[in-house]
Give the backbone structure.
Amino acid sequence: MNDRRLYFAVIIPILLVVISALPVPLVVNAAKYAEVGREMLMNHDWINLTIGGDAYDQKPPLLFWIAAVTFKLFGLSVPAYKLAVLLFSSIGVYSTYRLGKLFYGKETGLLAAFFWASSLGFQHFNNDIHTDTILADFVVFSVWQFSAYLKTHKWKNFLLGAVGVGLSMLAKGPVGVVIPGAAIGGSLLIKRQWKEIFNYRWLIALVIVLIMILPAMAGLLNQFGLEGIKFYFWTNNVGRVTGSYHGSSTDYSFYLHTSLYVLLPWTIFMVYGFAQEIRSLIRMRKNKPDYFEVVNILAVVVYVGILSVAKQQNPHYLLSAVPFLYIITAKWTVRLFESDQKPKTRNTLSVINKVVATVGPLALLVLPIVVFPEKRFWFWGVYILLYAGIVLLVVKKNSLPRQVVMLTFTITIMLFTVNVNMLPNMMKFHTSIEAAQIFNEKAPEGATLNIYNKKARLWNLLLYSKSPGTYIIEKEDLEKFLPKPGAWIYTNDTGYAEMQELGLDMVVVKKFTEHKQLTSQSSRFLNPKTRNSRFLTMYLVELK
């Protein structure tokens, strides 16, 4: 893993993925979070959050601060924003390396960090940016620092660990303390380190965290009163677990099958490593050794356990557990390939990985050949070059470095195809972006672009407009909004019919007859022959 040729062979493909993702527009929640940051900058208010002009309480401000600072420095540049988030994500990658190295040595740390940075989950959610993207970085940072403190008892590590928890809570609220608490606190309990548990330093950490989250508390108190504080500490977290606030899922295996693709292309190594970790811990429990590390397994099991019983479930919720899962994966992968034992296991894993590497990209060809036919020669040049590299490595003798490069090429083909072929073509039917472009070109100074109706709530409309307006939900809200001569409104066919019923003096700037939301796909839409049956109609109107 220290071979410089290996670094060259894996870093260039990952850079290709990153670069190909930069032009892809932000949509849905990722656009919403960027818009909150943009309005923060427009309002010159870094504490009281808004979206579409209305007070916003769903998430703490850290990600919005990153967006606002980026837009302040580089203008409304989505690529610059993505790069800024990647800069913060590098903290998570480095922390994964250091935590793995702390417990199992440099080789494991390097492999775990690379697994994380090259995984589908990391790359996708640094493109489709959520608050969990940032949460994962500071969660693993805080666990690394606290783990280092328990080994060295250096104040620096302890204070940085507390700062990490504070930043985690500024990223997504109290959920930011769950993994550090489970990993570090659970480890101390299992090892019965009572002096460390009842050390006064934890009170200092509590004070640091409370000071750090004061900006979030101030904004919520100003805008929502004590209900805002309750929402931050209780409703927005416990309510999603119990279903009293959001969600109704009963799929307790959701994160088990979700992890199989979020962790691509390292899924086979993960399944093997996790099984070995559980088996090893059972043996250790019987033998009762003086030292065994449970920080990483506790971070995974406790957090994923809570997520699994929660009523609201989303793939990006899993992100914060993934660095710890990859440390476990890297630990057992390195041990397997360094040892002369278990040759059959090595061969089995290698064969499975080779099948995934060769068959996966061939199956993916349905996208650029059938779904969205690709005619650019340079696209096919990159595709063929990467696949030729895979074939060359498949016929070589099994080794860990070769499998790492082979699977890196595989995930690169997948994400390159998604970023360059699939997403841009789907964006053509996500008409709110085109509506914003039309508004920017034709709307006079002083006009605002607004959303009417829940089915038209596509936040990228506001993000990409030169003058974002507000989100109008119900017909009663529209009546309160009126009269607004000069205002532009983006709505669906139901909203347009309601506007006609009100007898509004308006002009249809454009009727979009081929609308399909990016995050709402189906096999009938992906099939060119039945695609027309899945289109909706949207309207961009100007009030007179």
Observations:
- The longest strand covers residues 506-515.
- The CA atoms of residues 26 and 128 lie 7 Å apart.
- Residues 400-427 form the longest helix (28 residues).
